[in-house]
Amino acid sequence: MANVDVSHDLTGLDKATQLEVLRQRIATVPGGRRDQAPAELPTVTTPDRPALVAPVVDDPELISAATRAKALRTMPVPPPLAALLPRRALVRGTALSVTGAGSMLIALVAEASAAGHHVALIGQPRLSLLAVHEHGGDLKKIALVDPGNADPLDAASICLDGLDLVVTTVHGRDVPPTRARALLARNRKHASILMLTDGRMPGIDLTVASTVCGYSGIEQGRGRIKSITLETTVHGRGTPHRTGRHTLIAPTFGEAGLRWIPTVTDDLEVRRPVTVAAAH
After folding, report:
1. Residues contacting residue 252 through CB under 8 Å, at least 6 positions apart
2. Can you give the pLDDT at residue 59?
3. What beta strand segments (E) does the chain contain?
């Protein structure tokens, strides 16, 4: 692997400029902390000197490291949510509330784990890991945490120290403002993403609500569901109130993986919710 030249003369530069140049060089070294890697490498200019930029390195390993550093500032999301977000991804340090259809939560966990991010599921006994796998998720990246009778936010606070995405319940309650501030500050410090599946927390950055508004495959009270259509609404800080519809289609014979496609409202055939009869 090529060595990065760090011997460039910094004399004559003020302290702030010297620190900025050093940060640029550190950003090109692979293996840095995710929360210290800048999204971009800014150009440093001084009145009496030419612009200084991070050294150009032809080594593929260093180039890929710089690309990863930029990518690690965000986390990918499924197409229905990406279409509604300004950056088509979740920014690290963000806290969001996800409510409604479970398919959206499953898709979020699957998308994050498939991209190599580590996920903690705290108090989520109804979340199907089989469904996560069918969405393309990597189960090796997912940790299941049962808080028992303890406060799930205690477990979430610990998980935020080392995991990328922390999904937790708050049992439908309101989180006190002082507790919320401490937890959100910890989330920002470690550049994680905190996701609540119920309850309310002040200071949330983004709210995601999804509802099932249609499905296909069941005719005359029998058959197999081939697709479901979700209506997803997002709003929050820096994110305008937007709503979109996507259909999740199950693979047919010879296909692999579920597919999301945008749905035009006029083409949507609305049906009543499915009632499953349990055998006794």
Report:
1. none
2. 47
3. 44-46, 49-52, 74-76, 89-91, 95-100, 119-122, 142-145, 165-168, 193-196, 206-219, 222-236, 239-249, 259-262
In the three-class reduction of DSSP (H, G, I as helix; E, B as strand; rest coil), residue 135 is classed as: coil
Give this prediction's pTM: 0.70
Phi-psi region of 20 (alpha: psi -120 to 50; beta: other; left: phi over 0): alpha
3-state secondary structure of 258: coil
37 burial via Cβ count (<10 Å: 0-12, 13-18, 19+): buried
The answer to whether residue 174 scores a pLDDT higher than 70 is yes
Place of tokens 């840095």: 32
Q: What is the mean pLDDT of residues 15-20?
A: 67
Question: Up-side HSE of residue 22: CA atoms within 13 Å toward CB?
Answer: 9
Question: Rg of the chain over CA atoms, in angstroms?
Answer: 23
Pick the residue with more confidence: 226 or 279?
A: 226
> By C-alpha distance, which of 89, 87, 128 is closest to 105?
128
- Here the tokens at position 47 are 């009145």
Burial class (CB in 10 A: 0-12, 13-18, 19+), 140: exposed
Residue 36 confidence class, pLDDT cut points 50, 70, 90: very low
> What is the three-class DSSP state of 278?
coil
Question: Residue 276 and residue 256: Cα distance in Å, rounded?
Answer: 26
CA distance 32 to 26: 8
